[in-house]
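Many introductory courses stop at the sequence. We go one step further.
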Amino acid sequence: MMSSNQRESQRLFEYFAIIGLSPDGGLEPDRLQGDVVVVPPLERSYKARVLGHYPDHAPTSLPFDHHAVQMLCLPRGLQFRTQKHFLEPRFHPFLVTKEDGSRAHGFAYVFYEEVNSQQICTAMHTLQSVYLTEMSSSHAKASSGATPNSRDTRSLPRQFRLSAPKSPAALHFYDITKDQLYVTKCIALVGQHPYVYAARKFLKGLYRFFIQCESSGVSLESHVYNLLYEVPAPPPGRCVVFSCVGKTHICHRPTSHELPLFEYSLREFCSCLGVESVVQLLTCVLLENQVILVSSDYNKLMLVAESICTLVFPFVWQHVYVPILPASLHHFLDAPVPFIMGLQCSHDSRDTIQIPNEANLCLVDVDEGTVEVPEDLPVFPHRSDFIQELTQLLIKWEVPTGKLDRNLNEHHSQYKYRRRRKYSWSHDSDSGVSSTEGSMSGSHSSITSLPPSTATSTSPLQGPPNSTRSHHLDPFHFSPHLKEITAIAKKAGVYDSEEGDRMKKERDSEMMEELKFNNAVREVFLNRFVHMFCAYDHFVIQPNCQETDMEQWLSCRESVQNFDKATFLSDQPELHLPFLSRFIESQMFTTLVDHKILSNWGKQDSNLRIFDVRIRLLRDRYDDSLVRTPSYETCTTIRETEQILEKRLAHTDYRAPAPQPMDPQAESCTQFNPGHFPLLDRIALNKEPHKSKKRSSHAWRRRERQERHLEHTGLSGDQRDRVMHEAKSKLQPKLADMSPAHMAQTNWKFVEQLLKECKTRTKRMLVEKMGSEAVELGHGEGSLVGVEENTLIASLCDLLERVWAHGLQSKQGKSALWSHLLNFQELEECNDSSKPVNPNFLSPDLSTMALETESAPASPTKSPSNTNSLRKKSLQERWPSDRSIDRRSRPSDPGIPTLRPLPISITFDMRNVLAMTEIKTHIGYARAWVRLSLEKKVLSKHLTTLLGDSELLRSLYKRYAFLRCDDEKEQFLSYLLSLNAVDYFCFTSTYTSTIVPYRVVIFPSRKLSGASTSANAWVSLGGTLGQTSNIPVPRSQVELVFQHKNLGLLTTLRIGHDNTGMSPKWMVEHVLVRNEVTGHTWKFPCGRWLGRGIDDGSLERILVGELVPSHVTSDDLVESCRTPPRCRSPNVPGPRRSDLRLTVPDIQQHLGDSVNSLVKYFYKPEKERGSLTLLLCGDFGLVCCLEQVFSYGFKSTRFFGKNLYLWDYFERVQQHFEVVVREEMEREQLTGIARDRDHGLGSMAEFVSLVARINASSSHLGKDDKFQLFVCLAARSHLLPRILLPLQRSPITSHMYDESSFLRDPQLVRDLINVLSALNEFEIILESSLTRGID
């Protein structure tokens, strides 16, 4: 990626650099790498230097960054080793990212060379002695009280003693008398193009050319000069062939209509991680999670990072991207932004990695092939089909689908080191180093002592010698000795040069196979995105290009909506919504939409151009009006794009000249100090070559093509550069140090950005929530109900944390918002305790709080560290009952129940949050407090109060902080105030296991005969998350408070008594239940008697509740509860059945509507269904409508005796059916012939059993409640449509019903059966509160 002012380079590479130990300096520890005292000197890091880079300045505006190149070539600094270690050269790419977003591609080849400086060797020996002395002294102190071992009196640590010859620590010991010291050195290439194959081949060949010390007319400078100046970068659609240190190499470049250039091995990438891990990592990157890559190999870090970034094409990662994070920059992991960072560490040290935030983190262990993802990560669309397609592709290309122990660096084992001394490992020495371990490791440091095959096979770190598709090297170039043998063999006719040509063709074929495999994998991933977003342009909100130019749109693009997200998501499959709803909020998708809009003014993005072409091809295959492909479609473009690649590489468009000898004075550099890579001739490598007419003509044609392209887009070069620079500067975070002026400007931009983000998020939350409420009211179709609410609220919590963390004087905890709240709470308690409070002027709960403060210990202040002590408060202290209030504040009539409003204060909600034992962190407390305030619709009010303390703000925040910008703060609070327009249950639905206090207020009848009861009353609550047991109601009381695990949204309430005492009969009009944490109040209408000998003789009622709107005040609610309800329980409209004047069509219409509501309930997604209990037992629910059906024409009134109920009819039918079933069983036993099933004997038996179970287990229920229970259970077992015909044929029906009733009209019965049969295909699951005692 190039900067805005950076023209595309015509060179393949821009710089050649040498990094290593400065010959003029000594051993300078790299303090940024960590503590250097606790590790041996050979394991420490030392400062490296850029010894030289060529040329001094490139003709393009790509300056050479000394610091970045030095850190990324040797991320752990200089490393010293001895001949006992594994000294194998390693190659790894790297990226240098500038502040403007431009990137330079670098390629490093790291090797070891001997240290001949006596000063360095002596310094290393001195450090080793100091380290051993410190280890000995610490060992002696640790064992001072122990009995000394007579057989071992050495003072060295155990790992360095002769008694432990095979200890790995012996490898880290340096003996100046016997060991040869080696130090890392690096040669590197830097350019603008990611030509990985060319860089690896050149650096590897140049190093081989150096160590072989061949006598040739072409020097190191000649090869470097040829690559930098005489090998051009191929233009799009062309390929270039050049000499790569004695070997030819071909470089190509795709056209603007093909996938961008990519030369990393996706074969290696898939083998390291496996298909499933790749898809998991892809999901995390697309959702912009924080991604940390861990590996012991820098090459693998770059491989995984670059591979996953190219597989998200056409999208581009827009956040922090550091594939190789130097050890000195590990503090960047604390960045609160999405990032992809790579950490190099060994397998043993991975447990010591300090990860600041694991909630949103994806951790990839590349060496182990494992991916740890966040818990709430949604599933990638068509995940199983996608994995299957990728697996089949890997099988076709013979790639292992699991982790493969293979590394590209493991194939560079031919570069060994010559030993200058003869080492004695056959006897013990004072150093304590064993001979066995050293001899084995030492065998890898020489290429002359062993044949290549032997050296390779004995290496413990080598890959399998016969690994397929490995990067083979010519075995006859291992050493000068083998070169001489090869020459003699050729003269004797023993060696056939065709074998070398064959190996060369195999290498070229291998590169072709890698490119073709990369193309196949990338096409599969692109095909998936094409199908997922094939209609995305239908939802892009395009501006009016005639009235708005590009500059105006860019200035206001953050304040306008550019994509119709709601409509787009409404057209997607339900299973894909969790992923897509988060992905379309990402910066990657937003950038793609921005590029789509910019294309209206001729600014065509290359990625978008390719993406749109593929979408058009897909639409041509189906239909231009296609919105979504019906099923999973595999990729069909692999072969077509593969042929384009083969055709391009089969024809050479340009062949670069071979390296030519240079100045003879420069030729002597390769002979100077053999074994040490020299500094090159700076003067020779800074001379620009004379451009020939051919090259000038080529450059002229290139400029002509660029001018035609700019003319086609309608933009000038400066305008294009300015637009790109502005976009990249906004997207790329700046991590470098800034001046105070720049810091102030950045902070001001941050304040504006936070305000815009708050506006966007609150607006989105309002639109989504209001849309779902409109669906519930019947004003539209549901599309997003319950899908994004939790995600949006979580993002709001994150936004609040970032707002409160901006401009802090000092960080007090992990949550800046909670720290502020704790400080506010401490000040509030101090102020309350410093002055007397008259409780008569306070509401009951506030007066109780004041009394608690007065009765507190002598030190009333509470530090943030002691917040857990609030949990120890009793229930009566935190949620006081009205009985604890001063009698003077109560109404004059003690028999009238009341419901005092809850206090609205920050500290009250904080106490409720602190009482939640399942929360352990400050971040958790802050999120719970935000969710609670949002559900209570007091978030804006609380934050206004919190920010109203200006003295506290000044003590906690700096002047430039967001919270101290008055105008922006007011707008911020106004945005949050708008959230009060909708209802949220984000606290209730999230914290399902917390303990919640509930207040129950019973409103008996105002009639004296039913106002009170002498019996022992009880209540039981049921909700969406559970139910309670029977909770006793204190005698002569109509109010109680109890604690229970969160019940969710309340649905049912059971109320009853034991019918004891002188006057047990009790008339209950309403029951109110309030959640004392959230303040939600439910109203349960009753309007029925409890007691034997009155009404239907019920001792227990099942009530169905409704949530009271938040705008209804407590006084209005209490006043409405003192009057009889409009609907009694069970919910039949009107006080008496005899008053109903419903016709047959009306009853049929009501029943049809109730059944349709149930059918719609089951066809809705599970998150949108609501309460099934309300549809069954609520107003005009199934129970209510069937009671109308059975009551029509029912002879309930009798002149003598009590009136009959429907349950009386059911009991008589049960007795009749029981006789019929018994007689049929006896007849069948006698005759052995079973009667036809059309007679409904099975349904009769099931009816008899169900009625008996209800009577046996629900003896306290009234007859109407038993009927309600029967309808619910019969609907669950699908008995309702099957029992109607047996009921019609029963003589009990003709005796108890008029001729005009439903049950005596065959046509009406058939209609009922048809309507109720619609419920047979659904599985009805009843709440346990309805079926308690039955199931």
